[in-house]
Structures are given as structure tokens and as C-alpha cells.
Write a structure and sequence with these properties.
It is a single chain. Strands 2-8-7-4-5 form a 5-stranded mixed beta sheet, with no helix packed on it. Strands 1-3-6 form a 3-stranded antiparallel beta sheet, with no helix packed on it. The N and C termini lie far apart (71 Å). The radius of gyration is 21 Å and the shape is elongated. It is built from 1 helix and 8 strands, in the order H-E-E-E-E-E-E-E-E. The chain is of the alpha+beta class.
Length: 133
């Protein structure tokens, strides 16, 4: 019975320590979302070749101490590796931006990834795929 109590106490201490350390660290991820208004791409969609695809993003810091530091836009065409098409430094609590791109050749599948990074290196991303016809 002593063995069972010792194991139970160990598990309780381990769980409490893990919970407390997570709470204490204050690690909070930034948040990024697409603007979901009329005329904007905010989810996977199909568009005609040559159409201007307009994205709007809204991002904000989630913690009290961190600031947003960088916004990166990447594109993958037909499953290829992501390539960075724009990268900008920002030093702010909130960030909103609109981007327009011309939809590529018919049959292409273009995945756009918008990444926002905080001071602490943590990030969040928003992804939308455009299939051109």
C-alpha cells in the first residue's frame, strides 16, 4: 500500500508541476485570420486565370509582453516547395494588410500561406488555396 501511495503522490506532483509551469510561462501565440469580406479570398476557392485574387489579413499579439515582428507570405504552386514572395518587418501590437495577386495558368493549384511572428519566435499562419480554371 505504501508503494501505491508513493506512485499516486508522484503522479500528482508531476501533473501539478506541469500545469503550474505551463500557466507560469505565459506562452501565448499570435493570432492571424483572413478578412472574410465580399471579394476577398479567405478559404480554398476556384478562380479564373488572370483574375486578381485579393487577400486581407488581420493579426494581433496575444500576450502582454510580446509584439508582432514579422509577416511572411509564401506560395506553393502545384505542390512545390513554399517560396517566400514577400517578407516584411513590423513592430506593432496589431497588423492588417491587403494583398492582390494575379491567378496563374489554368489548372494550377496555388497555396498561399501568411505567417505572423512575435518577439518570442512563436508564430501563427493562415492558409488558402486557389485552383485556377
Amino acid at each position: 500500500m505504501l508503494y501505491e501511495k508513493t506512485v499516486f503522490d508522484f503522479i500528482l506532483v508531476a501533473l501539478f508541476s506541469t500545469f503550474y509551469s505551463c500557466q507560469k510561462s505565459g506562452v501565448t501565440l499570435p493570432v492571424i485570420n483572413f478578412y472574410a469580406g465580399t471579394g476577398y479570398v479567405y478559404s480554398d476557392t476556384v478562380l479564373a486565370h488572370g483574375t486578381i485574387a485579393t487577400f486581407g489579413i488581420n493579426a494581433y499579439k496575444a500576450g502582454v509582453d510580446q509584439l508582432l515582428r514579422k509577416c511572411i507570405i509564401q506560395r506553393s504552386i502545384n505542390g512545390s516547395a513554399d517560396s517566400t514572395i514577400q517578407e516584411m518587418d513590423v513592430i506593432t501590437q496589431t497588423f492588417s494588410q491587403f494583398y492582390g495577386y494575379t491567378v496563374g495558368d489554368s489548372g494550377n493549384v496555388e497555396r498561399y500561406t501568411f505567417i505572423i511572428l512575435q518577439d518570442n519566435g512563436l508564430s501563427d499562419s493562415a492558409i488558402a488555396t486557389i485552383t485556377s480554371i
